[in-house]
Amino acid sequence: MNILIIEDEKPAARLLQRKVEKLGLQVNTMLHSVEEALNWFEKNTHPDLIFLDIQLSDGLSFEIFEKTEIKSAVIFTTAYDEYALRAFKLNSIDYLLKPIDEDDLDVAINKFKARNSAIPSLSLDFEMIKKMLVNPAERSYKKRFTIKMGQQLKMVNIEEVECFYSENKGTYIHTSDNRDYLLDVTLEQLETEIDPAAFYRVSRKFIIPMKAIKEIVMYSNSRLKVILPTYKNDEVIVSRERVNEFKDWIG
User: Fold this and answer.
1) Which residue pairs from 94-98 have beta carbons closer than 8 angstroms and sit at least 24 positions apart in sequence?
2) Which residues are CB-contacts of 12 (< 8 A; sequence separation ≥ 6)?
3) Each residue of 166-225: pLDDT tens digit?
4) Using CA atoms, how far apart are residues 141 and 37, in angstroms rounded to an integer?
5) Are strands 73-78 and 94-97 parallel, antiparallel or unpaired?
6) Do 145 and 128 form a contact (C-beta atoms < 8 A)?
7) 3-state SS class at 17
8) Using CA atoms, how far apart are residues 189 and 221, in angstroms rounded to an integer?
9) Backbone phi, then psi, for 232, in 5-degree steps?
10) Closest to 209 (Cα-Cα) out of 142, 160, 154
């Protein structure tokens, strides 16, 4: 079986390769950009299976399919949640939500083996996903978070969020009732799951909702400081390189 990985983050590509090969398969090639993939497909026989990241360093991977006819089966590897993926999940082999679980990977590969003799058409899938990703109006965003607290589960609605922040390698929700809850996702993943019209990542540490902004004041080195109603653990600073974009976001 000839397997190709297209993933812009080389450590993530190598990790996926190890997981695939742990299941007894061999990854023949790893590519890291749209341009690299297009050049490769022009000169090589198409593989049996592609593990494909949606967002690559130089654009969306849909550009590959717009410029060349791919004859391979595809398993998506993506940070997008089930709402964005619902449009194509039934017609593609499968998708793997990052970070990739080995059991899910095993299931996806077994699906491919079972359907290997009849690869479905991918043209409709890519058009639907592309529309959902490129056009925010077509996206469905998270409305609540399920948080594990010991043996109990707590639901936090998106309207209760005062900010998301990272601390000591963990990601937290701070709510309007001045409580903090640990999440099992990164801020990078959250950015793909929440409405960019309502939330903005002001720095590497913070994502804030517009409705929670109490006050904005000037800060050192051309930065801005955002005052939130109850969050007092640390200063919420808009990084200098994001100030202009932040101003555009708040209108």
Assistant:
1) 96/51, 98/12, 98/189
2) 53, 98
3) 998 899 999 999 999 999 888 988 888 899 999 999 999 999 999 999 999 999 888 999
4) 30
5) parallel
6) no
7) helix
8) 29
9) -130, 10
10) 160
